[in-house]
Amino acid sequence: MTLLATAAVTAAAAATLLGGSLSQTGTTGPARVDQPPGARAVPTVTVNLRTSTPALKKCYPSSRSQVTVGLTTDTLGKDSFVIRAWGLRARTDYTVFLIQKADPNFGAAEYIGDFTTNTKGQAVNVFYLIVEEAFAFNNATKARTDLNSIGFWFADPKDDDGCLGKNSPVTGFDGDGSAGVQMMNSGPTKLP
User: Fold this and answer.
1) Is residue 33 part of a domain?
2) What is the pTM of this model?
3) What is the tally of structural domains in the chain?
4) Which of 71, 83, 145, 186 is most buried by a 10 A CB count?
């Protein structure tokens, strides 16, 4: 698939969501996005994210998120990473990371981008980066750590206060070093 075709598919996904409606199959998945006519099939992997804690699930019972990765590193030198989310806090910024593990001891992490929910708590964003072979490397120890999990955090530590209270943890998962807690992660599902 050419970069132009990949962009067309992801633009269609964004237009569907940001146009005001998010059609779902039942209540667990986003709208299906078809490839443009004549586009070659790209191998993809899709991961459904889960709410990180029971307290967050109670506050956001309709929260859902799905990541679809177009595996094109070998052909284009990068992959497409499409994140879709709904049922989240409205008008809120979130930071997205590739992480070593989805459990609370996340290990190594790579900050890959942000997304912002609309007035309905929905969002979509597309990142272009190497996902299939993502890793962290410690030159001092020569240790390589694969980053095969996904997580996203409240970008502002105050944005989770309505659910967790004013003394909720402040984490470092934002560019300014001050973020809220992790909202969702990929659980036991691993990226290739």
Assistant:
1) no
2) 0.81
3) 1
4) 83
